Amino acid sequence: MAANRTSSKGRGGKNGAQNKFLHHVTFVTNSWRKSPRGEVDDSILRFVHDWLGCCCLYLADVLNTVFSCHIPIPRQPEYTAVVTRDVQLLVVNILYQNIPGVRFGIAPGGSAGAQLWAGLGGQQPVPNGPWCGVELLQTCVFWPPGQVARLDAFERYVAWAWLEMLESGHVAPASSPLAGVHV
Fold it and tell me: Which of left, alpha, beta for 180 (phi over 0: left; psi -120 to 50: alpha)?
């Protein structure tokens, strides 16, 4: 696989990134995939990192509270995201022309996201490693055909950007998540 051998300027350029993966799960279809970090170009992650930064996610560290913001998705004017952060957990609700249809949550793994996993519809045990769990809302039937599928890569981009923000200290992780993550 060429992606595993690329430089720091290409795909998955961080040292050891080719060995990293996250569990990408769509609960309603029971689609479960190990998504390697090497699939995502570093330039895309920098772009998504900046986009998440625009959401003022850092403010949750200062306030020690759940923080949420409403922000357009770049280059996709028909989509909007409502991003909610609770310590190490991130929940993104996607709206297409103001109609909610997809919600996904991201956690670094372990027990930190157990309540979020269940809230998104996870019936299986929570994965040991990092994960991105996707819930298709009933209202997604009002979206034009093919619009839900367009978000698959975006979910992974946001997940990897968030996990790397936590890992690098750009978002200070806490020892335990706040109680009552609402999805």
Answer: left
